[in-house]
């Protein structure tokens, strides 16, 4: 029984990795000054941040049309028995629900949708694990059981320079954004029940990053081996330096570097940083 793995662009898995593991990707889009760009297809992350800096209007994000999912699922039905479609949190986007609806429209293949309840490269942890298992011949139900189990070991925290982006895009309450702005704090944010909420309010960026590291350290002491990722919003040098420091401190953790692409970057803003991990 062959199982195909589908995800959306907000997992920010490189084209090389997608090709190697046979991962199929449906892009979300970003509207900048009336122009629509499919992320990871029409525009790179660095191009996005350059364009937004000069734009007069706040960019808007768009989930994929249901028809794109349906077309892909129908195509996959020619060669596969099942699809597992893994998406960013349903609490911040309708993408997951679009995949559910498309799966109900298509015949000849079993479509299983999985809500990662998170986004970016941490969503990618689920995608990569699923693709590796599919390549080894595990069934869709075995893969889904593993992904569900992985949720209890997966964490992500992120720090933004300006909460106004999240508030304007409707991903954070006005009250939380207002308090952050008034107090000039750098809150550590995370996902709870599929939505973004403040974890702790911290005065400086340096201390906020250290707090995220402290949370990683707690799990690094518990588990023999972990995968972790440092994620940045167009501040690669700072991210690389932080990654190097973390890698030297936690030898049992395999670190990679990723980025907040156009869609997530719209809501977090330039200069954002994230740290996510899961048990191997």
From TrEMBL:
Transmembrane segments: none annotated. InterPro entries: DegV, DegV_C, DegV_domain_contain. Keywords: Lipid-binding. The keyword Translocase does not apply. PROSITE patterns: DEGV. PANTHER family: DEGV DOMAIN-CONTAINING PROTEIN DR_1986-RELATED (PTHR33434), FATTY ACID-BINDING PROTEIN TM_1468 (PTHR33434:SF2). This is DegV family EDD domain-containing protein. It comes from Lysinibacillus pakistanensis.
């Amino acid at each position: 029984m062959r199982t195909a793995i589908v995800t959306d662009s907000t997992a920010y898995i490189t084209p090389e990795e997608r090709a190697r593991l046979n991962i199929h990707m449906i892009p979300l889009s970003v509207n900048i000054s009336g122009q629509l760009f499919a992320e990871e297809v029409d525009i790179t992350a660095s191009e996005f941040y350059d364009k937004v800096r000069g734009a007069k209007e706040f960019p808007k994000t768009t989930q994929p049309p249901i028809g794109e999912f349906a077309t892909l699922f129908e195509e996959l039905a020619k060669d596969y028995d099942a699809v597992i479609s893994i998406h960013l949190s349903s609490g911040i986007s309708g993408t997951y629900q679009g995949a559910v609806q498309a799966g109900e429209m298509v015949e000849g293949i079993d479509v299983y949708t999985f809500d990662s309840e998170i986004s970016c490269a941490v969503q990618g942890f689920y995608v990569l694990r699923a693709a590796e298992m599919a390549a080894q011949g595990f069934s869709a139900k075995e893969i889904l059981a593993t992904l569900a189990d992985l949720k209890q070991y997966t964490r992500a925290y992120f720090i933004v320079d300006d909460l106004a982006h999240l508030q304007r895009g409707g991903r954070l309450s006005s009250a939380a954004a207002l308090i952050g702005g008034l107090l000039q704090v750098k809150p550590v944010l995370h996902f709870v029940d599929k939505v973004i909420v403040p974890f702790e309010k911290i005065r400086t960026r340096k201390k906020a990053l250290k707090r995220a590291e402290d949370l990683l350290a707690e799990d690094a002491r518990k588990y023999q081996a972990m995968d972790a990722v440092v994620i940045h919003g167009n501040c690669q040098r700072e991210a690389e330096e932080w990654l190097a420091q973390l890698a030297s401190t936690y030898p049992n953790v395999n670190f990679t570097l990723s980025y907040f692409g156009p869609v997530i970057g719209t809501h977090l803003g330039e200069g954002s940083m994230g740290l996510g991990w899961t048990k191997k």
